[in-house]
Structure formats: C-alpha cells, structure tokens
Specification:
299 residues, mainly alpha, Hypothetical protein af1432, globular
Length: 299
C-alpha cells in the first residue's frame, strides 16, 4: 500500500470516531499563558489549581526521582518555583497528555506505554543537549507524544490490533510495519492525523509522522533523528510497552545517526556503550514517575 493510501486510511480511522478526546482546556491555557513574555507564577499557579487533577499530578511528578527535589514539594506554587518556567510547560503538557485517554481499556499495557513515552522524551532531551540542539525542551515534549497513534489504535481498533498481535506472537517484528500490513496504516500515519486535528505545530507533526524514517524529514530532520534514536535506545533498555515489538539495531547503520553526525560532528566520539549504561540507570526513575502519575489523584 502506498503512502497516500495509508494516509487516507488513517484519516478515515480518526474521523470515524466521534468521541476522540481533546487536550484538556486548562493545560492548553497554561501552555498559552507561559508563552507570554511577562507571565507571573501566581497566574500560572491559580490556573493549574483550577484543575485539581492536573494540580495533583504536577505535585506528584515534581516529587518523583526524575526531578529530585531536596525536600518534598507540597504546593503548586512551590513546584513552579522549584521547576522554573520551562519545566512547567513540560509538566503541564505531560500531565494533560496522560489525561487524554484515561478511563479506557487498551490492548497494550498503558503504564508500560507511558514509561516508553516519558523515556523517549527524557532520552531525546539528553541527546538534544549532547548535540547542542537549540531547544531540548521541544525534543522532550515531542518525544512524549511521538507514539500518540499507537494509543489510538490500542483503544479504538482493539479487535484488529489484538488479531495483529496474535498473528505475530513469538516472532520478531517491527510494529509500524505490521500495522501497515494488517490495518492499512501505521501508528505514525494515525498519529499525524490526530496531531493535525489537535493543531500541533508543524514540526511536532513531522516527528510524529516520520519518527521511524527521519531521512524523509524536511522541516527538522535533526529533531526527527533525535526522537528516532531515543525511541530505539528506550526499546533496547526495556522501555518498550510490554515487549510487543522486537528491536535490534547497529547505531552506525542508522540513518538518524548519520543525520546527527552531520549536525554535530563531534558526536562520532560518543562512547555508545557507556551512554547506554547511563540510560539504563535512569529507567527506574522513569518507572517511579509513571507510577506516581497513575496513583490516586484525589485531592
């Protein structure tokens, strides 16, 4: 099936569901407020506190090992002071994205999925910093949302998704290739349709669509390459939402690696084995953070 046909199929899937969720309004307003040049923390804190679930999640996340506060943070305003403006955007976006599909049954293990998503975000940010990409926060955020199409397929195409997994059980496979074969479109195609529906920025849409083929990127191939490698690293570090997909790769053969070396030539000196060990050390932090996110958020 060619690319145009797969995109048409993906669009049909997304448009066929009237109850497709949207990004929560409060989180959207927080992100918009943070774009203002002279925003005050009190304004942001008041807005977050208007959504008690979001407020509770922000406090849980900031107290997780990933952010390492020296003392427990017990108020939203204290959390904002501790994090700073840039990390507030990260947290608001992260928490709202988790809320989008809450309360539904899925085929994939949803906590493992979020471990993978937050892992890719974190690793993308680390890679972005190593190659001196100018916006490591963007790398983090788009890393979190890169697999949004996977969540959709797992929730909304359950029978087809289950049949596909049964067919490939015990065999090595790449999930996006099998999705295209069984469903007529991959999670990357579906993710692009959802991202456009949610009015994501064009470079976010490109990464979601091309995180398995960064060499096709036109707007920001470097960002696509960063997320592609972060995705691969997380998969080999067992942050792969339940082991549904088999991943084995040689870094030197990856097109994303060539893209990044062209962007940052000194990356050729990276000790890849040590880098992988460092990433593996961060896995428990990510798992603990996701566990905290999914704990009871009653306030």
């Amino acid at each position: 099936m060619d690319k145009a046909a797969m995109m048409q199929k993906a669009q049909q899937m997304v448009e066929s569901f009237d109850d497709l969720p949207t990004i929560p309004q409060v989180a959207t307003k927080v992100i918009q407020l943070l774009d203002r040049p002279n925003v005050e923390l009190d304004q942001v804190a008041d807005l977050i506190l208007s959504d008690q679930v979001l407020a509770a999640r922000v406090i849980k996340m900031v107290n997780s090992p990933l952010y390492r506060p020296a003392h427990p943070v017990q108020s939203v305003k204290r959390a904002l002071i501790y994090l700073g403006i840039h990390h507030i955007r990260e947290l608001a976006f992260s928490c709202s994205f988790v809320d989008v599909f809450q309360g539904r049954d899925a085929i994939i293990d949803i906590k493992s999925f979020w471990e993978h998503s937050f892992g890719v975000g974190m690793v993308a940010k680390i890679i972005a910093e190593k190659v001196h990409y100018p916006d490591s926060e963007k790398a983090y955020l788009v890393g979190i949302v890169h697999d949004i199409g996977e969540v959709f397929l797992s929730y909304y195409r359950q029978d087809d998704f289950r049949a596909m997994l049964k067919e490939v059980e015990g065999k090595p496979f790449r999930l996006f290739e099998k999705e295209a074969e069984f469903l007529g479109a991959s999670h990357a195609d579906v993710g692009l349709c959802i991202a456009r529906k949610w009015n994501f920025p064009a470079d976010y849409c490109e990464v979601i669509a091309l995180h398995h083929s960064p060499e096709e990127a036109q707007l920001d191939p470097t960002l696509c390459a960063i997320v592609n490698l972060a995705d691969l690293f997380c998969s080999v570090c067992n942050l792969d939402y339940g082991g549904h997909s088999w991943v084995s790769f040689s870094l030197r053969e990856e097109k994303a690696w060539s893209i990044l070396k062209g962007y940052a030539p000194d990356l050729a000196d990276l000790d890849v084995e040590r880098f992988c060990y460092e990433l593996e050390d961060r896995v428990p932090e990510i798992q603990d953070m996701v566990k905290a996110i999914f704990q009871d958020t009653g306030v």
